[in-house]
Structure formats: C-alpha cells, structure tokens
Amino acid sequence: MDSENILERPFITITNLIWSFDHATNRVNILLVKRDNDPYNNYWALPETFMRAQESAEEAALRLVKEKIGMDLSGSHTEQLATFTNPLRTPGDRALSLGYMTFLPDKPQLKAGYGASDARWFTMGYTDKTYTFSDSDHIFQSTDCPVQRTYYSEFGGTNADPDKHLAFDHEWILKVACDRIRNKLDYQPNILLILGGKFTLKDARRVYSPFLKVRVEQIDNSNFKKSHQELFTDIGSSEVNGPGRPARLYKLAHLSA
Amino acid sequence: MDSENILERPFITITNLIWSFDHATNRVNILLVKRDNDPYNNYWALPETFMRAQESAEEAALRLVKEKIGMDLSGSHTEQLATFTNPLRTPGDRALSLGYMTFLPDKPQLKAGYGASDARWFTMGYTDKTYTFSDSDHIFQSTDCPVQRTYYSEFGGTNADPDKHLAFDHEWILKVACDRIRNKLDYQPNILLILGGKFTLKDARRVYSPFLKVRVEQIDNSNFKKSHQELFTDIGSSEVNGPGRPARLYKLAHLSA
DNA sequence: TTGATTTAAAGTACCTTTAACTTTTAATTA
DNA sequence: TAATTAAAAGTTAAAGGTACTTTAAATCAA
C-alpha cells in the first residue's frame, strides 16, 4: 500500500488523567507529576508512560496508576479519551499520545519517588473561560488551542515558565477531557465514580459544579435528585456532624461502562 | 521513566470509515475495500493506510480518501472515532489502529485500482442484534466482541471465510462507529453531512433509520421536524416526481464540528 | 426548654419538550 | 372530478425540566 520508507513508527505514550475527590475539601482533584527528564524537565505534566509490547493501552493506563501512586486498579474504570497526533506536539522524536481517564473511588496519599521528582493532587476549579487546577504553589489552566506554543525547554519561548504552564499539549488535553466529562454528565456521568461507595446529593453536585462552571448552590438539590433518581440508590442516612438536617446517603445504581 | 528495551514502536494504521448516501436507493453506504496483500489477503476491510512522518492522523485520514476513491476532501469533515490497541488485533507485527470517520457530501463512482483489488459501496441495514453492510454478493455484520476470533488467514479457523467476515477487528470497529453515530444523533448528528447541500425530511429520517434500527415510517415526520427545526433551514420546495405533495427541501444550518 | 439557625428533604406550580395521533394540503391518477 | 398518495401542519396528553416554597431534622444560644 504505502512504501516502507515513508512509514512512521513513532513512540506511543499513554497519558492518563487520574481523577479523585477529596472528602475533606469537597473538591475534585487531578493528579499531576513533576517531570525529571527532558523534554520539559521540571515542568508539571499529566502522568505518562510508554506502551510496552504485549499490553493493550488500557492495561498500560492501569499500570501507570500503580507506578505513580502505588494503587492497584485491576478491574476499575478506565476509559479512552482521545488520541493526540499532531507532529509538533513533542519536540524532537515524534510521539503519539493515547489519552485515557481513570476515576479513583478514593483519594490515596501520594508517596514520593514513583518515577517523577514530585507528584501532587491539584484541585479543580473554573474561570469564565477555562478550567483551573491548583495547589498551594501553582495554578494551571486548560487551553482552547491544541498546540498553543512551541516547546519552551527547547527554544526558550517568552512564556517558558514551568510554574505557569504544563508540559507538551497537556493544557489542551485537559480541555478535551473536561469538555468530554461535561458532555457525559447528562447521560453517563462516570465521573461520579470518584465519590466512592457512598455519598450525599451535595457531594454529587460538588462534582458537577466545576464542569458546569457554576457554584454548587446554583444546582437545585430537589431537581438534581429527581433527574438522577434511577441512577442513585438510597442507602440510609448519613452521620450527623454539624448543624442542619443530616443528608441521606446514596450509592451509584449501575453506571454502565 | 521506562527502560528502552521494553518500549514498543508499533506500526500505526489509520482506519477511515467513509460514509455516504445513495440518493437512488435512499440508503446509507460505507466504503469497503478488498485487500490484496497479507495479512487477510482477499478479505474485505475498512480502508486503511499507514501514517507518514510529518502528517497528523487527520491528514492521513483525508489522504486515504484521496487514494482510495480519488476524492479531494481538504476542509471536509473528518472526526476521530477511537483507537484500537489490543495486541492480538493483528497477526504478526503489532499495529495500532487510529479510527476516523469521514462523511462524504455525495457518493462518488468508484474507480478500480486505487491500491486494492476492489472497492465497493456497501448498503447499511440492521437486524435485531447487529448492523449489516451488504452488496449484491456479500453481507457483513458488526459484532459485539472486540477481537472475536483468531486470525483466519494465519491459523485457518473454522469460520475462515473471506466472504462472511471482514479483516482484523473491523466488524468490531463498525459496531463502535455505529453506536457512536447513534449516540450523537440526539445532539450532534454529523452523519447528516452525507446528505449534501439539500435534502428532504424523509431523507434525513432515512439516514437515522438504520442507526436507530427502526423503519423510516416509524420515525414520525412531524415530530422529527419539530425537534430539528433549528438544525434544518428551509430552502424551498422540491421538484415533483410522482404522486403526493412535494416535500420541502432543507439544508443543515450549522452543525459545529 | 424553647426558639432561632442551619441544612437538606419534600412538595408545588409552571413551562417546555416529547410522543402519538389527526387533519389539511398539494400533487398524481383513474 | 373524485380517489389516491405523500407530506405538511395541527392537536392533545404525558413526561421531564425549572424555579420556587414548605417541611423536617439536626445544632446552638439564651
């Protein structure tokens, strides 16, 4: 079909967006790692790994979770996001990225030294135009432009600041991911898996909030319950820990994968 | 991160599902080609090409259309479907497949000899459980199982019949594609692009029909019009060519890509 | 203990969308 | 000219979504 000499056998990286929910702060979290090798050394990035022989991309995505945060997720929910193929998305050797998303049922403490100089949970928020991901030291934003700039570490662009931008096209990948999750809220809200085995209606609204870019209070509890009544199963009342009527607890009914 | 010796640099194939509409038979069509090289020599398959250096996968998908049916589609609508990575999906050397879909605004006559021993339009239909794709000599079906059998041409399985099954996992890819198109009918029916610049409401219902697995008559014209009124723009009355009131003609209003 | 406060559940009314069906219109055909 | 055909246009009831109000179950302070 094509002659051999023009064939491309690029590197294949698996990029996995790992989502969790922090029940202390009631916020959606995403895992970012600090790179300790070129390109983009010392930049924060979405966790990546190279695909190995004899494993499917889904298997590589789960192995990645094990390597980065020591969590065994065999049998847990990982889904394909998209594949990023722009030849300019990496400096030097071309690398395709197969994007996946994993929804962790709880937020594990991170142990240092899993193949990166640092790994942290970043809290999701939003502005008018972007989704934001912040920790105590940084705030990163999603971007609307697929490959928004040339490679800082190689060419030293004017915005070459590893405290303000993520590596590669990862700000764009975040945008694609958040838009996908938002679109699926109406018919297959797999993101709710980050709430684990029991949660209140308010918890669920707190997950929806940043994707819809509205405050939790703007999502009416009564209407939210009605439109999710066959998705949520009532499993009793929550323990009381403050003023106000205790919320009921729910679990997810089925959520087909 | 990972040591070099276990890295995989597989072949990358672009698999493009090319959809069109036959205004003579009023049926949805898909392009299949007859392979003239191993593996799966003489099997019918979805059109594929190898990705080249310096081109993105989208560009390769459009180049593929040009090569297979001589149609220049620069600027036309091609969208990503999914990426297929099961190590067992190809015999011998591993090959990832990046799936794309192209919606042709009209159905070109096929010229023989574009890098395959044959290329034909297959008519889409449906049964209870599968989507079907038939021409005068064959009927192929989508399948629910990702890699449903080992490789006929290599191992000589009992169903090793190139007149009954497609190459590789292409029956599974068809299932993923049809389900995706069906899901998007409600909010972004890009498949309607195959109707070209003007069409009747019945034409649009004939496109929906096989994906919904119902007869055209079961899709109520009046309700269909109401739920699509901001998507369709009335551009006048059709020419009369038989008994009955002439149908009005519409064009697509925007259809964001 | 009693009433104010807090938080969430439960209920209400209205409006829009959906779905099934009927009527009207505009063409052909006997 | 009336019957036939095919599609547009209209009707109605049920379902679903949205905004809002009321009730319930807890804490807290006088």
From TrEMBL, chains A, B:
Lineage: Bacteria, Bacillati, Bacillota, Bacilli, Lactobacillales
InterPro entries recorded: NUDIX_hydrolase-like_dom_sf, NUDIX_hydrolase_dom, WH-like_DNA-bd_sf, WH_DNA-bd_sf, WHD_NrtR
Protein name as annotated: ADP-ribose pyrophosphatase
Ranges where the NrtR DNA-binding winged helix domain occurs: 194-252
Chain ranges of the Nudix hydrolase domain: 27-124
PANTHER family per the UniProt record, alphabetical: ADP-RIBOSE PYROPHOSPHATASE (PTHR43736), SLR1690 PROTEIN (PTHR43736:SF4)
